[in-house]
Design brief:
By secondary structure, the chain is an alpha/beta fold. The protein has 3 domains: 217 residues, Rossmann fold (3-Layer(aba) Sandwich); 250 residues, 3-Layer(aba) Sandwich (D-Maltodextrin-Binding Protein, domain 2), CATH 3.40.190; 102 residues, D-Maltodextrin-Binding Protein, domain 2 (3-Layer(aba) Sandwich), CATH 3.40.190. It contains 24 helices and 24 strands. The strands form 6 sheets. It has a 6-stranded mixed beta sheet, with helices on both faces. It has a 6-stranded mixed beta sheet with strand order 19-20-18-21-17-22, with helices on both faces.
């Protein structure tokens, strides 16, 4: 009779572990096992105790109750890698990695002769695929390269447990995705037991063999990732995770079936968010002219139908794509769109688009530019997705941009209009943006950090940052929760700037231009729908289950801004009332002047990423290469022309920080 396989002895474990500081409970009773050779990801909101958990496993924190079994208890060791690489600036990358062996020698294990150590480091760099970085100084490394060197330094000490504390949070989406893939390959190669703490749910799902969700109050739930579709798993976890971050009840994460226009529910009044029975005031097609009307049901039946998959982040930037799906605008044009896929990070959205898991998405305009010219991801812009739609939210005691000196401010990514506009405001005030450097009020510096949008309100509320600049409705969430205020709207700095754009892979445009045209037509028609009934759009985004934020926050962005402009003008959040800017606007025409100015502004913007590609761009020619201009213009005309969106054929970029 065969014996059952023994349960593997954990590399480390916590049994009802508890950590208190005075009367404050940092971590309630917690039980967890780290299994041999696994990559365990730990995800949860700020303040749940993730860093405390790592501190317990690393031996940096002693429990005040329960028990902790660490690798050292059985002759092993643990190594901790922090969010910042913390490389010694006077040592090369290879010499920094060698520190791992020197630390081990100081601990009594010994490393033999110096020649043996050098050979070991050389071999390790080759095994980890970073041998070409060996002779570079830290200042010559990108953020992703520096973090790889930091991880190699920890691995050099041959630990039995590797602990990673949000090692990729400061990286831009493309670099982050690449570094995540590298870590997964390293983990498979070395078979090293690893615990990675992250705020990013997509990162946790993508990397983890198991995912531990640590909730406020100490509850812990562990999910097996093996054999589970990543998108399905992330969808199952997203609702509870978002609730924990937001602190509010949210709608279930689901994307409903496509509805006809007659099912697009009308709302009684702005901000009411009370669905009424269907009436004649329900949304109608934007164009009365038969020439400009989209195909009707009979005409659509004659079109070769196609299925395209939509990907989006849960922000109001995605409204045109979601309303095009919800209202039936895609279906009317012969496009079947299954349940749109919700992604939590730009990195996973980009990867899904590049890999073919989705076909249509909204992307930050600067990110779309970086992807095409730096990462060489072949994408094309079909239309502007929206204009404005973002703001700088700060703590209540900060009354002007100058008050940010000596503090930290979060941006959602280095190549975002948010980072560009923030640094425009800082420069205009005489402040300097710094990265990976402590901020100084005396020197007039502001430290920029990258955070996932869902983590920003929590970080602002607990004082980890003094402000954040991001897409709505996360700024409205800060207002609704009373943890912050709007210091300035981005549309009041750069008038009607494009934030997100609708993109597809270039092969769709080159091989099936008629289908790409139908995609653009549907998205532009949806923008017209939103403009004609913002309240109905807000209701569908909330009640339809597309956006998980509180309905009040979504309504505040889409509906209420015109009613509160005077109050925002009094506070200084709006300085240009004469611009008459909505909090978020919908104008699909892609202006060449904006693309050209954006290239110029990116060259002035500090980022922790490669910018060599920017030097080789000709601002005057980027637009026609990046944007499908003919498709864009035809879609605008089909929806009633520029006048239907309050736009004209030319404009001058107006930037007044």
């Amino acid at each position: 009779m065969s014996q059952p396989e023994p349960h593997p002895q954990p590399v480390a474990s916590l049994a009802r572990a508890r950590v208190t500081r005075g009367t404050t409970v940092l971590l309630p009773e917690l039980s967890l096992e780290v299994l041999p050779g696994e990559l365990l990801t730990v995800v949860g909101p700020s303040g749940a105790g993730k860093s405390t958990l790592l501190g317990l496993l690393a031996g940096l924190i002693q429990p005040t109750g329960g028990s902790v079994r660490r690798p050292e208890d059985s002759g092993g060791s643990a190594r901790l890698v922090f969010q910042e690489p913390r490389l010694l600036p006077w040592r090369t990358a290879e010499e920094n990695v060698r520190l791992g062996l020197e630390f081990r020698a100081n601990g009594g294990s010994g490393i033999g002769h110096a020649h043996d150590a050098d050979e070991r480091v050389h071999r390790l760099l080759q095994e980890l695929g970073i041998a070409e970085l060996a002779n570079r100084m830290p200042e010559e490394l990108s953020g992703g390269q520096a973090q790889r060197v930091a991880i190699a330094r920890a691995v050099a000490a041959a630990p039995t447990l590797l602990l990673l504390d949000e090692p990729f949070s400061a990286l831009d989406p493309v670099t982050r995705a690449d570094t995540q893939q590298w870590l997964r390959a390293v983990h498979r190669q070395l078979g090293l037991s690893t615990v990675l703490v992250t705020h990013d749910l997509s990162e946790a799902v993508r990397l983890g063999d198991r995912i531990a969700v640590l909730k406020r109050g100490g509850a812990l739930e562990v999910f097996e990732a093996a054999g589970t579709d990543p998108v399905t798993l992330e969808s199952e976890l997203l609702r509870s995770f978002t609730q924990l971050d937001e602190g509010d009840e949210v709608a279930p994460v689901r994307s409903p079936r496509a509805r006809s226009r007659r099912e697009f529910i009308s709302v009684a009044a702005a901000g009411a968010l009370i669905a009424l029975p269907l009436a004649a005031s329900a949304l109608v097609r934007p164009a009365a002219n038969a020439q400009q009307s989209p195909p009707g049901a009979a005409e659509a039946a004659e079109i070769e139908r196609a299925e395209l998959r939509i990907g989006y982040l849960p922000i109001t930037d995605a409204a045109p794509l979601l309303i095009a799906h919800d209202s039936g605008a895609f279906s009317e044009r012969g496009i079947d769109t299954p349940t749109p896929t919700l992604f939590r990070s730009w990195a996973t959205l980009v990867e899904a688009l590049q890999g073919g898991s989705i076909d249509v998405a909204h992307l930050l305009m600067p990110l779309a530019m970086q992807l095409r010219y730096d990462a060489e991801v072949p994408i094309k812009v079909l239309a502007w997705n929206h204009v404005n739609g973002s703001a700088l939210a700060v703590r209540h005691e900060i009354d002007d941009v100058a008050g940010l000196a000596g503090t930290s401010v979060a941006v959602p990514g280095w190549f975002s209009i948010h980072n560009v506009v923030l640094q425009q405001m800082l420069r205009a005030t005489g402040l300097t943006a710094v990265i990976n450097t402590p901020p100084s009020a005396e020197a007039g510096t502001v430290q920029l950090v990258v955070l996932a949008p869902a983590d920003m309100p929590t970080a602002l509320g607990n004082g980890a940052i003094s402000g954040y600049i991001v897409a709505e409705p996360f700024c409205a969430v800060a207002e609704a929760q009373g943890i912050g205020k709007i210091l300035r709207f981005t549309g009041d700095v750069w008038k009607e700037h494009a934030c997100c754009v609708t993109v597809v892979r270039e092969d769709l445009v080159s091989e099936r231009p008629e289908l790409a045209q139908r995609v653009a037509d549907a998205v532009v028609a949806a923008q017209r729908l939103i403009l004609e009934d913002r309240a109905a759009a807000a209701d569908r985004l909330s009640a339809g289950g597309y956006l998980p934020q509180p309905p009040q926050a979504i309504a505040k962005v889409l509906i209420e801004h015109s009613e509160t402009q005077d109050a925002y003008a009094a506070s200084g959040a709006v300085e240009h009332l004469e611009w008459e800017q909505p909090r978020i606007g919908f104008q699909p025409y892609a202006y060449p002047s904006y693309t050209e100015r954006l290239v110029e502004e990116l060259r002035l913007t500090t980022v922790d990423a490669n910018t060599e590609w920017l030097a080789g761009l000709n601002p005057a020619t980027v637009h026609d290469d990046l944007v499908s201009t003919v498709i864009n213009q035809r879609a605008v005309e089909a929806a009633g022309g520029l006048s239907a969106f309050g736009a004209t054929s030319t404009r001058k970029e107006l930037v007044q920080p």
